[in-house]
Amino acid sequence: MPRYTVHIRGEWLAVPCQEAQLTVGWLGREAVRRYIKNKPDNGGFASIDDVHFLVRRCKGLGLLDNEDPLEVALEDNEFVEVVIEGDAMSPDFIPSQPEGVYLYSKYREPEKYIALDGDSLTTEDLVNLGKGRYKIKLTPTAEKRVQKSREVIDSIIKEKTVVYGITTGFGKFARTVIPINKLQELQVNLVRSHSSGVGKPLIPERCRMLLALRINVLAKGYSGISLETLKQVIEMFNASCLPYVPEKGTVGASGDLAPLSHLALGLIGEGKMWSPKSGWADAKYVLEAHGLKPVILKPKEGLALINGTQMITSLGCEAVERASAIARQADIIAALTLEVLKGTTKAFDTDIHALRPHRGQIEVAFRFRSLLDSDHHPSEIAESHRFCDRVQDAYTLRCCPQVHGVVNDTIAFVKGIITTELNSATDNPMVFASRGETISGGNFHGEYPAKALDYLAIGIHELAAISERRIERLCNPSLSELPAFLVAEGGLNSGFMIAHCTAAALVSENKALCHPSSVDSLSTSAATEDHVSMGGWAARKALRVIEHVEQVLAIELLAACQGIEFLRPLKTTTPLEKVYDLVRSVVRFGK
């Protein structure tokens, strides 16, 4: 018998359909009838005849024709939404997919797999897993380690040994021994009580990264999770069934408890969950629609799912990869600006940088020479001012290797820490199968990634700070020898006047965001967790800083391309002309 999951006014209803020839309109009316039946005030309606509605798919939000037969319009177990006429304009309206509808059309189920072993995941791998480009499987070695680890937990249960988090309460309740017949209930209660985060949910890409990283850590075999449960979690990841994880609530020790608890809550079939098929819906319905069963937690497994630094680290992975990309782009954009401002390439001479051989500085100088070298890629602009009387350029041009260089070195340093964290066991207690025992420690403390991501924010910000000054030079006629604000008819048009103001505003915001969150600590859990990392905020604000850097550099790129128009018919080097052509393929010259 076909069945449909219907969202109406913030609630989810399962509506069976006994006859295939019934219509979409029937489904809408039946959903409204069931909704009214469950409301003491009939949902505010005098009768079902007073209700006018539209029916649309949750997937993509496409409207359905009420007269179409269900067997033609919908697949079995599809998710649909009934929108009551007038509700969409109400402040109380709760759509099934509040934002990010584009994600439905972007997602394609991957065919390739990444084999996780807990030891060799890279930042690039995790970002690709977040983008839905791979499914996950375990290596045979990882499976054996997980099984051996679980045998230790089973032995503890059988022998009734008192061990933290397995046969005791948590935090301040660590000395409270739990009866054997309540050990499963203990784990479920742990997940429910710790699901106390607030804020917007992680977007699907970030939730995929979080879930994939937790799987990788569990695959190390020091968490005590059963292989059966871990494989269930992997099946959910591969089906892109992603729990509702609020972005705020972690203090970064004992691990990212609140966000990871929300992650685990969805896995046990509670709370909300997202999939490309359903949008946001009750987790139990989403899992059922994909033919999956909720996880039934065994002793220690709730703790195994929620104890670790995976929220900080997964967001940190995205930050590192985006920072790496924008740092490379910054060199190209700055080189184009230098050409437009008729700067000299002498400051990038190999011998100068050999005398101060920082790796990042040498790499950036090499990139500038590659982009601006007139012997290989002749620049008509450079040739036009070869014999000018200018001796040297402003620091924002001349010192790019030194300023951009240290940013590159910062990214490399942070990437090393994040990569180590990706493949680290961060549980408590740790289960050592080789010793047949568990040991309580502090690997859950997020200080390493927290400090690193604060450092990353400070480092990457400098790309925006120096870029904004170059934008000023491009817009200021007394510095650029170009029309004011890069527009021919100044006064009639304001050109890049306010675009520069936007860049200045973003740089100013970054100055506040670069204050390190990890210098703060607040004692929690009745002083048992008396020093914390605040790494969750370090990761989130690092991403905001990087977003601002991307936007400032985009403004500089547009300004440089605008400036080059006033130097035509002269051309720049071949590589930079290709950059110009790429920009002009999407943004036309502003006259």
List the helices and strands and how they pair.
Blueprint: E1 3-8, E2 11-16, H1 24-37, E3 53-57, H2 70-73, E4 79-84, H3 102-106, E5 113-116, H4 123-130, E6 135-138, H5 140-159, H6 183-194, E7 198-201, H7 204-218, H8 227-238, E8 242-243, E9 246-248, H9 257-267, E10 272-275, E11 279-282, H10 283-289, H11 301-306, H12 310-340, H13 350-354, H14 359-372, H15 380-384, H16 395-398, H17 400-422, E12 430-432, E13 437-439, H18 447-475, H19 477-480, H20 497-513, H21 535-565, H22 574-584
Helix pairs in contact: 4-7, 4-12, 6-9, 7-8, 7-12, 12-14, 12-17, 12-18, 12-21, 14-17, 17-18, 18-20, 18-21, 20-21
Number of domains: 3
For the record, the CATH class of the largest domain is: Mainly Alpha
Instruction: Summarize the amount of helix as a percent range.
Output: 40-55%
Average pLDDT reading: 92
**What is the quaternary state of this protein?**
single chain
Which class best fits the helix and strand makeup? alpha+beta
Which fold name fills CATH's third level, the topology of the largest domain?
Answer: Fumarase C, Chain A, domain 2
* Overall radius of gyration: 29 Å
Tell me about the biggest sheet? 4 strands, mixed
Annotation field: number of helices: 22
Anisotropy-based shape: globular
Strands, total number: 13
Taking strands numbered 1, 2, ... along the chain, how are they ordered across the largest sheet? 2-1-4-3
The CATH homologous superfamily of the largest domain corresponds to Fumarase/aspartase (Central domain)
Strand content: 5-15%
Which spans have pLDDT < 50 for at least 5 consecutive residues?
89-94, 100-105
Distance between the termini: 64 Å
